[in-house]
Specification:
426 residues; alpha/beta; Spore Coat Polysaccharide Biosynthesis Protein SpsA, Chain A; Rossmann fold; 2 domains; seven-stranded mixed sheet; 18 strands; 31% helix; elongated
Length: 426
């Protein structure tokens, strides 16, 4: 005996509502795209299995993604146990039924066509403690309602429930669910032909740098490298960015004259340290998470690229490019010119340069997560003090100081005031 009806219990792949555990490595939209691809693989395997009836027990809308040939029944019930029981009831047409989820895209028609003659039920367990399929000859709410769902022992509990009802159960091979980034990577490696695997490979090498930067701010391990794979130390020190200002930071900040604009403020350690000194300061960053973390520390921050209009243009006492932020945009000469526009006449521009004095590398960088994701190239520049001095001179900034602290390199510059500005000042 084989199943006469195949049921897929599924949720419409809407960003933010499906595969939320994938969002430790992927955006909500990317996680939803992976869910959609996984569901497409599952539906293709189901449709290739010769049975009389194909059913989707659906939460959400099927418009635009469900292939033809499936009868849709809406999910009903309060918990997953009730929704599973209802799916069997609503799909029943007098034939044995096999229900599968949308999280095992590696399922095959051969697995779905298993002969379970002599058994009352079929159960396929998953590696995480759940189960990927359940087969019943006819609906039986007793078999499902009250079984704890979404635990690491759901599969065992389901098996015990079936046996407690006197069911003879055929166990199918154990499969791995697609729930976490590690699951996605493992399935992509083991089953490279799947739609979800092909999408995973594309996503692994095309992450937006902002996504990985925000993952780093949230505590994930992310490293920065050149496109050649060499590490970029100044952009791999997120732990320092998230910690309070250290001795080298405080030494640099002792030069600051208020008000201070911190460009690329990250999680706000510099703006916070300035506030503690009683120096008015504002952080700017393009990362929403960085701005949130800064304001959470009680310091002001604004989400805006430095190239766009900023408050107080031409009136800032000091403008900061800490933590290698001289590299923002990959054009340090243009960035220093922008700083000169922001600072007041004779105001201060403080730059943290690469410790390698001779470095002048405008090549883009790549962010890499511990989970294997790699961003597309991010325009950046790595420049030592000699290159910074050249670029500053072209921006009409004159050097005033150059020092080292804890292996870090700093320079300060003054914006040269024009004759008209000096006359206005006096």
């Amino acid at each position: 005996m084989t199943a006469g009806s195949l049921i897929v219990i599924a949720k419409e792949p809407v960003p933010g509502r499906v595969k939320t555990r994938l969002q430790t490595e992927f955006t909500p939209s990317e996680a939803a795209a992976l869910a959609r691809a996984s569901l497409a693989d599952t539906l293709a395997a189901v449709r290739a299995t010769p049975v009389r009836r194909y059913v989707v027990a659906l939460e959400g809308d099927s418009t635009g993604w469900l292939p033809p040939g499936f009868h849709v029944v809406p999910q009903r019930g309060d918990g997953l146990d009730e929704r599973l029981a209802a799916a069997f009831e609503d799909a029943y047409s007098g034939l044995p039924m096999l229900l599968v989820g949308m999280d095992t895209p590696q399922v095959t028609p051969e697995l779905l066509m298993v002969d379970w003659a002599g058994h009352d039920a079929v159960l396929g367990l998953t590696e995480d403690g759940g189960y990927w399929c359940l087969g019943l000859r006819k609906p039986d709410r007793r078999a499902l309602v009250g079984v704890p769902m979404s635990t690491d022992h759901t599969g065992v509990d389901q098996l015990e429930r079936l046996r407690s009802l006197g069911y003879s159960v055929l166990l199918l091979p154990m499969l791995r669910d697609l729930d976490t980034p590690a699951d996605a990577a493992a399935l992509a490696a083991a089953f490279p032909h799947l739609r979800v695997s092909r999408l995973h490979r594309r996503l692994q090498h095309s992450a937006h740098p902002g996504l990985l930067f925000e993952k780093a701010l949230g505590g994930a391990r992310v490293v920065a490298t050149g496109t050649d794979g060499r590490a970029v130390p100044s952009l791999s020190e997120v732990d320092r960015w998230r910690a309070p200002a250290d001795a080298a930071d405080r030494l640099a900040l002792s030069r600051c004259e208020g008000p201070v604009l911190d460009i690329g403020c990250g999680p706000g350690r510099i703006v916070t340290a300035l506030a503690e000194r009683g120096i008015p300061a504002l952080g700017v960053d393009i990362s929403a998470l960085a701005v949130m973390l800064t304001t959470k520390r009680g310091a002001p921050a604004l989400r805006r690229p430095v190239q766009e209009p900023l408050p107080g243009e031409g009136r800032w006492g000091s403008v900061l490019l800490m933590d290698g932020n001289i590299g923002i945009g990959g054009a340090p000469r243009s960035l220093l010119r922008r700083c000169a526009e922001l600072v007041r006449p004779e105001g201060l521009v403080l730059v943290e340069a690469d410790p390698d004095d001779d470095l002048d590398d405008p090549a883009p960088i790549v962010l890499r997560s511990a989970g294997g994701r790699r961003s597309h190239p991010l325009p950046w520049a790595r420049v030592g003090s000699r290159a910074v001095l050249r670029y500053a001179q072209a921006a009409d900034l004159r050097a005033t100081e150059d020092w080292r602290a804890d292996g870090r390199a700093f320079l300060t510059f003054r914006r040269t005031a024009s004759v008209a500005e000096l006359a206005q000042a006096y």
